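Form P-L/3: holo structure prediction, ligand FE(4)-NI(1)-S(5) cluster.
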Amino acid sequence: MASEEKKGKKARSASAPAQEIIEWGMSQDIGTCFDRADKMKPCPIGHSGACCKVCHMGPCRFVGKDADTMKGICGATLATISARNIVRMAAGGTACHGDHGRDMVFTLLAVANGETKDFQIKDVRKLYKIAGILDIEFEGRPVLDVAKDVGNKLLEDYGRQRGEMNFIRRAPKKTQERWKKWGIVPRGIDREVAETLDRTTMGMDADPDSILLHGLRNAVANGWGGSMISTEVTDILFGTPMPVKAEASLGIFTEDEVNIVVHGHEPSLAETMVDVVAEPELIEYAKSKGAKGINLGGMCCTANEVLMRHGIPTAGGFTNQEPAIMTGLIDAFTVDIQCIMPAIVDVAKKFHTKVITTAEKVKIPGAMHIQFDEHHAKDIARQIVKIAIDNYPNRTKKGSHVTEKFPVVAGFSHEYIEYMQGGRWRGSFRPLNDAIMAGRIRGVVGLAGCDSPRFPSTGVHKFLATELIKRDVLIVSTGCSSAACGGAGYLTPEMALEQAGPGLREVCEAIGIPPILHLGACVDNTRILTIASAMAEEGGLSDEIGGMPAVGIAPEWITEKAVSIGMYFAVSGVPVIFGGESPVEASKEVTRIMTEVWFERFKGALHFEPDPEKILALALDYIDKARAALKLRKYEPGKFAAEKVLMDMAARREIEKAAKPHLGIY
Ligand code: NFS
Ligand code: SF4
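OUTPUT (holo model):
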């Protein structure tokens, strides 16, 4: 071990506050995922997709120079088992996002059926928009009746055995035709997940192309199913996001307030916490224990949900969860579902922090469990806040308290992006398309996915974010990538002035937006799908999602959800590049199918590329080739074609003044 590492100085995170806390932790012998990542080297056979363990004759390991020609005990080839492995990962991801969406629908139905008073329909316009897409009559009907029909219709997407999922119709016609041609329009979310597991067990589908095609069907069931349902129903219940100012970093916690973290993915409990921490009785109770007030902070995608809608500060993404507790300032660390490291309980034991699990399907030995129930949401949230307040006087051990934090602007929904390009009455995607056609904006990158302890975490996000905007690429970001960009100070409009290329800067200044638009949680990647569909419909670029000068990048991905997301973007027509080593590295055949064959069929692909410089080059190459294929002006920095002047804020306000008071943003 190098002496720097011994002293705990090895770069773990590209975020200075996180690095400071992690170093302090190492000096105190408090281990984190970073230390465990050093010790736990991945098995190279499984890591590269060359191990099959779907039956107990194995695991069969395809190693050595004849790996390409060897067979498992059942006769399966390396390509077969490698394809099976990756689509099984994608099935896990679709199940996660699907279940999350299902829970949101149950909450919507609880509201519609009058079973809870703790939630309402906050965005009726969005409800009507979705009702319209689902062919549900809404005019003149009671809102809750419409909500009930919407909820029940979306629930059908889970159990449908034959036919097509509802939101497939939102994709451009040409994109849908490609799915139909290859027989991969999903029927129901649960059915596609179950069939993935069925097809990939011993003695089932042995054709790698066929296995991977079903993997794509399973992925469509996520992107145009579970995740999209989650985004839309969450907007209906809690409001469609509009830009908000907030703060990011591990420096958001305060010494003189009760600090409560909401971590996970589902917004229901977190939304309720936002309400109850403002209740005067609870604030008084906090004061009675010596605190000045109550400070709520988010983590991972639950953070993104309440950041987008309420400006609740975010403490960051996946790798920040243990360091957050190491500040010594967290009185209650509340978790719901997904991406929760069981290790938080071990770190919490070294401080006074109470870890509280709240989901029936996520329990952690050593944590306190308080079951969330949407029928009694506020009572449960109050109970948790009281526990945190009671725990405030127990802070004894000093942690590593950092104070540096960064301003962020978040809250860019599909609807707001449309609105910002012309106001409520003239909103469209025309200005964005025009800016791309004119070469002001070279292309669009969706920067998404996790942050990983296997890199200096968040570092590749930061590198790509700055290098891309410098080259006039507009970034839309989600999930922990947004947390990484926020924690680096990149989510402000000023960033455009400082770092963006001349064309992108001009567009950002005219509209008043940052060059990196925070679109929300990982389920909100579906906002990118609907934005891309709207751009296709607007005209002037590609008439389908495929062929757009757009690329998806998940440079530090770690989860099965990320694999499912990567696949649904690929099959929707977006070339996707994942960082890190490839989980199908062992099979050239599977790698070829996922890049070349998928590109021929769907105009999308899923690459794995560990070198950040090469990720950047590959993304720009895809963008420039798409521009050339669309016969758009060749991108040259600082040189653009004349185009219609973008509507600025002042012009938009003029239109707004003339209009009726607006009920929503679309
Ligand atoms: Ni997405 Fe959000 Fe983060 Fe990765 Fe996990 S929190 S759902 S999976 S680690 S980006
Ligand atoms: Fe080996 Fe075939 Fe069993 Fe896989 S399914 S473990 S390749 S025998």
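COMMENT: Residues 1-8, 658-666 have pLDDT under 50 and may be disordered.
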